[in-house]
């Protein structure tokens, strides 16, 4: 099984970087024999905030993240969460608080690492 690690740094809205990363991660996760892991750092931890309400016709990264979670793993930098006041109980189901040590392990284990 091939494994791909996606590392996101940008906020969920304001640019399309997180949007494009999540689109690609979901597409890869939808393929057979693919393991997808997604690590959210810096402002990207807000992608996993539950209860997002966006204007009609605008993309919702929370829903997009759910597509990745169906077949992959999503972790958030705990230090980045703390810096932004994001509590674990505010994060969507399936995503979890993590550490830089976990990111290091995932990086070593991955066949490909894509950084957005």
From TrEMBL:
Name of the protein described by the UniProt record: Uncharacterized protein
InterPro entries: DsrEFH-like, Sulphur_relay_DsrE/F-like
Organism: Rubrivivax rivuli
Record lineage: Bacteria, Pseudomonadati, Pseudomonadota, Betaproteobacteria, Burkholderiales
Pfam families assigned: DsrE (PF02635)
Top-rank taxon: Bacteria
GO cellular component, one term: cytosol
Gene3D superfamilies, per database record: DsrEFH-like
PANTHER family: PROTEIN YCHN (PTHR34874:SF1)
């Amino acid at each position: 099984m091939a494994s791909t690690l996606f590392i996101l740094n940008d906020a969920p809205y304001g640019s399309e970087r997180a949007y494009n990363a999540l689109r690609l991660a979901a597409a890869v996760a939808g393929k057979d024999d693919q393991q997808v892991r997604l690590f959210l750092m810096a402002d990207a931890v807000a992608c996993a905030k539950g209860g997002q309400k966006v204007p009609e016709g605008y993309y919702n990264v929370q829903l997009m993240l759910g597509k990745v979670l169906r077949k992959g793993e999503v972790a958030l930098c705990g230090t980045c969460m703390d810096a932004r006041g994001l509590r674990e109980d505010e994060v969507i189901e399936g995503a979890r608080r993590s550490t830089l040590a976990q990111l290091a392990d995932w990086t070593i284990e991955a066949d490909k690492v894509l950084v957005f």
